[in-house]
Write a structure and sequence with these properties.
With 321 residues, the protein is of the alpha+beta class. The chain has seven helices and 15 strands. Bound molecules: 1,6-di-O-phosphono-beta-D-fructofuranose.
């Protein structure tokens, strides 16, 4: 049987019918983030000495990747504003450009020193923030793992690509999984935060996943990597509201919204503790939000388990235009 010709990222984007400028932004980012990786070894140790807007010490790689990706996005000429977990203020680029980008340039910073997987998360809007996730026109992530994968959605399913080299040694992203559907109910429980800080209701939910659902715990310290396990094997990832941080740890715009878009496009569900993560909007662009996402059956289960719990934050802030 004739071998199927592999589908490239560019071909897949063209077939999606997405806006040509959006196609260009997505494919150029995929390759740029790939090029960045060649530089990683230089920045695996140390910090830049300064602190980010949250007062956290910034790993050298965090800072370098942020600068490299921001420069590359500006050079596309397609972005008018960039919000980043590593930028104190949004970066203003081309005034008349069509897109606004929100990103976590390096998700899983604690994994840098130990060479465990980490990633990059990006959401693309036409309108400026604050916005609900329903206004995302694209979301994508890069997972720097044993192989490099790139997963995107433009609202027509979630699709995964893997980096290959062609005969001339040029990197190509080839289709690995088209229109992914998360398995139901799945087998993996990806968790975040310290179980000692979990609420009694969530702790009981977590224990039941092991005792009754016989699920497997998966914790890599990187949301992107844990998300990928849940997306491929089914299950749930949760960084819940905790006693120490009622709004959880993950950021609404840099992490939750883009990943919720990818998850819901793969037939999964997302929840903030009171609504789909795609319906949460907050005037604070650095807002954190409790995050539950994965197979529908399990997200429904956690909603039932926590329903009695008032999530002590008001995630849906009506934005006064
Ligand atoms: P960074 O983006 O600053 O790395 O933080 C996010 C993160 O590393 C996620 O990738 C991961 O799921 C979570 O923090 C782990 O947090 P904790 O160590 O509290 O479980």
């Amino acid at each position: 049987m004739a071998e199927q010709k592999p589908v490239t990222l560019e071909q897949h984007l063209a077939a999606s019918g997405a806006d040509k400028k959006l196609q260009k932004l997505i494919s150029s980012f995929a390759y740029v983030a790939l090029d960045a990786q060649h530089q990683f070894p230089k920045y695996l140790r140390g910090t830049m000495g300064d602190r980010n807007k949250y007062g956290e010490a910034v790993a050298a790689l965090d800072e370098w990747v942020n600068g490299y990706l921001c420069d590359s996005l500006v050079k596309t000429g397609l972005v008018r504003k960039i919000y980043s977990e590593e930028l104190k203020e949004p970066l203003l680029a081309h005034n008349d450009a069509p897109f606004v980008v929100a990103m976590d340039p390096l998700d899983g910073s604690s994994n840098i020193v130990s060479n465990n997987a980490f990633g990059t998360i990006v959401g693309v809007y036409r309108d400026d923030l604050p916005q609900t996730g329903r206004k995302l026109v694209a979301a994508f992530y890069k997972l720097y793992g044993p192989v490099n994968t790139f997963v995107y959605t433009v609202g027509k399913g979630t699709h995964e690509f893997v980096k290959h080299y062609d005969s001339e040694g040029r990197a190509q992203f080839l289709l690995l999984a088209d229109n992914m559907k998360i398995p139901e109910p799945g087998e993996v429980f990806g968790l975040g935060g310290d179980p000692v800080d979990w609420s009694p209701l969530f702790l009981r939910f977590g224990k039941d996943l092991f005792k009754k659902e016989r699920m497997k715990a998966r914790y890599s310290g990187t949301f992107v990597a844990d998300f990928s396990q849940v997306l491929h094997r089914g299950g749930i990832f949760a960084y819940p509201s905790t006693k120490k941080s009622p709004r959880g740890k993950l950021r609404l715009y840099y992490e939750a919204q883009p990943m919720a878009f990818l998850m819901e496009q793969a037939g999964g569900e997302s929840w903030s503790g009171s609504s789909s993560l795609l319906d949460v909007v907050d005037n604070d662009v650095d807002a954190r939000v409790p995050l539950y996402m994965g197979s529908r059956a399990l997200v429904k289960k956690v909603m039932t388990a926590l329903n009695g719990m008032t999530v002590n934050h008001t995630p849906t802030t009506i934005v006064k235009k």
